């Protein structure tokens, strides 16, 4: 790789990210059912109806997986804690086994010199709360804050940072308007409510974390580089609408206490009454912003469609196994835009960036190595132009459960054989390890 640790500011953190449902194995250790367990059983929702029951069996292989991070010379590990592992019914009875697992995980990180970056919600809503409407129910804000308190009372003394939610757009829009993820709704009223309640839950949980004395609290949002397919006025308007629903809705609520007009056109009539009263809590200060970035979104107007009347356009750039264009410039633009328009000098982390490729053991991994290298160059350029970027987490440490795509899309630095569950580091793992090896002055 062209860049190495010495091309980044002193103290810049390199790590890898995972998420509970995608790796742990939800059938182990007394975890409760979640909406992903049941969504996967719905016809046509997930490739081969695969679920996270076993996943990478990280629940039993945690030590070996943490060793992989340490052996790569990483500084930090971003993981999520599963709400239903901690509280199988979402509220009430605590699963001590679940708390013990996360206790061992955090200690395992610290023993290996890895800073634990925790995310509280990475998409698995406990089924008992999904029955009550999940993200469409305003009470979700208090349910989530209560869960945050239970897990924080156990591991909050040792985690380095806490993100409330991973990728609010996916939690709300992708799952309640586009129907691609659990709970699989395509309903504007449900979507508008989820779009607001996810922010409300972030705010309520921040309040609770502050009450518990927690520092380094923030949120992880996913951004795309939205571009109009042509210069026409209609496509330009379509791009502005998509930018508002995908990129601006959450960050504007959190940093300014407002929602973009282009998105309120569609969602406004369906928002819960009195939503304005929640904006002060939603826009309380955060300590960091996590930026997840994968690709650009090329968009055109679709005059025959209902609001937002947009349609995705396939671009000409090279694509990953997901069909996503490789577009590192978009990462640089996103980071500089965040610093300029929203967060100023607030610390930012690239909390996810990576690519899927149909790798098998022994195949070369040049495409992923080049992908990482080019995105590292984009991060470096953003830092040079003033973004206070303090770390980078590759998505993902392991090949894992890629939601509606089942186990087919391989994002890992480490190959997982889903029959034997054997782990084999890929060439990109070794390339990243060499690139982030300690600088001469640090050893
Ligand atoms: O696997 C997901 C992850 O759970 C959230 N961010 C995007 C990744 C790749 O699709």
TrEMBL record:
The record's top EC class is hydrolase
Quick one: which residues bind substrate? 22, 122, 166, 294, 395, 402-403
List the PANTHER family.
GLYCOSYL HYDROLASE, LP05116P
Q: Name one GO molecular function term.
A: beta-glucosidase activity
Q: Which PROSITE patterns match?
A: GLYCOSYL_HYDROL_F1_1, GLYCOSYL_HYDROL_F1_2
Active site per the UniProt annotation: 167 (proton donor), 352 (nucleophile)
Keywords assigned:
Carbohydrate metabolism, Cellulose degradation, Glycosidase, Hydrolase, Polysaccharide degradation
Q: Which reaction does it catalyse?
A: Hydrolysis of terminal, non-reducing beta-D-glucosyl residues with release of beta-D-glucose
Q: Name one GO cellular component term.
A: cytosol
Q: What single Pfam family name could you report for this chain, choosing any that match? A: Glyco_hydro_1
Family, per the entry?
Answer: Belongs to the glycosyl hydrolase 1 family.
Q: Which SUPFAM superfamilies match?
A: (Trans)glycosidases (SSF51445)
Can you name this protein? Answer: Beta-glucosidase
Query: What InterPro entries does this protein map onto?
Result: GH (IPR017853), GH_1_N_CS (IPR033132), Glyco_hydro_1 (IPR001360), Glyco_hydro_1_AS (IPR018120), Glyco_hydro_1_beta-glucosidase (IPR017736)
């Amino acid at each position: 790789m062209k860049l190495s640790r010495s091309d980044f500011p002193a103290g810049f953190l390199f790590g890898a990210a995972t998420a509970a449902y995608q790796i742990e194995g939800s059938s182990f250790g007394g975890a409760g059912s979640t909406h992903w367990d049941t969504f996967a059983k719905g016809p046509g929702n997930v490739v081969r109806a695969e679920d996270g029951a076993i996943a990478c069996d990280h629940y039993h292989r945690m030590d070996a997986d943490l060793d992989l991070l340490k052996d790569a010379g990483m500084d930090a590990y971003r993981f999520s804690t599963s709400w239903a592992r901690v509280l199988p019914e979402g509220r009430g009875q605590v699963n001590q086994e679940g708390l013990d697992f996360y206790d061992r995980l955090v200690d395992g990180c610290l023993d290996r010199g890895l800073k634990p970056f925790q995310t509280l919600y990475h998409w698995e809503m406990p089924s008992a709360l999904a029955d009550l409407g999940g993200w469409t129910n305003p009470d979700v804000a208090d349910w989530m804050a209560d869960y945050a308190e239970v897990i924080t009372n156990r591991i909050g003394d040792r985690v380095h940072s806490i993100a409330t939610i991973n990728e609010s757009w996916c939690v709300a829009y992708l799952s309640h308007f586009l129907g691609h993820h659990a709970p699989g709704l395509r309903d504007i009223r449900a979507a508008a409510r989820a779009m607001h309640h996810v922010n409300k839950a972030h705010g309520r949980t921040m309040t609770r974390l502050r009450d518990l004395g927690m520092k380094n609290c923030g949120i992880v949002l996913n951004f795309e580089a939205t571009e109009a397919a042509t210069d026409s006025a209609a496509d330009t308007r379509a791009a502005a609408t998509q930018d508002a629903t995908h990129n601006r809705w959450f960050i504007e609520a959190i940093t300014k206490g407002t929602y973009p007009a282009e998105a309120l056109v569609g969602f406004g009539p369906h928002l819960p009454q009195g939503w304005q009263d929640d904006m002060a809590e939603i826009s309380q200060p955060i300590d960091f912003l996590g930026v997840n970035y994968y690709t650009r979104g090329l968009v055109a107007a679709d005059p025959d469609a209902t609001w937002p009347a947009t349609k995705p356009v396939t671009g000409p750039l090279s694509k990953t196994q997901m069909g996503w264009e490789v577009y590192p410039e978009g990462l640089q633009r996103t980071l500089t835009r965040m610093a300029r328009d929203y967060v100023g000098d607030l610390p930012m982390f690239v909390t996810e960036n990576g690519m899927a490729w149909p790798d098998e053991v022994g195949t070369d991994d040049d495409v992923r190595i080049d992908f990482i290298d080019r995105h590292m160059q984009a991060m470096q350029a953003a830092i040079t132009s003033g973004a206070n970027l303090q770390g980078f987490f590759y998505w993902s440490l392991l090949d894992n459960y890629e939601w509606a795509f089942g186990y087919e899309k391989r994002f890992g630095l480490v190959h997982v054989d889903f029959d034997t569950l054997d782990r084999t580091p890929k060439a990109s793992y070794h390339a990243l390890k060499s690139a982030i090896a300690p600088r001469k002055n640090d050893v």
